[in-house]
From TrEMBL:
Organism of derivation: Dorea amylophila
Annotated VanZ-like domain residues: 11-109
Family matches, as InterPro entries: VanZ-like
One Pfam family here: VanZ
Protein name (Swiss-Prot/TrEMBL): VanZ family protein
Lineage: Bacteria, Bacillati, Bacillota, Clostridia, Lachnospirales
Length: 120
């Protein structure tokens, strides 16, 4: 898990070129842009953010609210690092999407485990 998170952190912060400090402080701004401009690339980015941290919780039994909190906390560290090191866009949307992705992944995994245990 540590190696996976290291790769995620490196690919979202340190492999990017240094630019100017960028931030978007309006929550869910990306969904408005997706609907308004039919931006498929932004849609793809949002959906990928929803599954970004999914491998972290797949092998563990955790409650959905802990998975959500974990996704938000990890994502917040990435977003703050992007802001501080000027390597990407700080945005609330990524934290929301990563938290939701962890939460949904946790819920789906729990249901699959229950289903598999019933088959035994």
């Amino acid at each position: 898990m540590v190696a996976f998170l290291g790769i995620v952190f490196a690919s979202t912060v340190f492999t990017r070129m240094v630019s100017v400090r960028q931030y978007e402080l309006v929550p869910l701004w990306s969904w408005k842009a997706i609907v308004q401009y039919r931006d498929r690339e932004l849609l793809k980015e949002d959906l990928l953010n929803c599954i970004l941290l999914l491998p972290v919780i797949i092998d563990r039994k955790v409650n959905w609210y802990w998975a959500w909190a974990f996704g938000v906390m990890i994502s917040a560290r990435i977003e703050v690092s992007q802001l501080l090191f000027m390597r990407g866009l700080f945005e609330w949307d990524d934290m929301i999407h990563n938290g939701l992705g962890c939460m949904l992944g946790c819920m789906i995994t729990q249901k699959m485990r229950e289903w598999m245990n019933k088959k035994k």
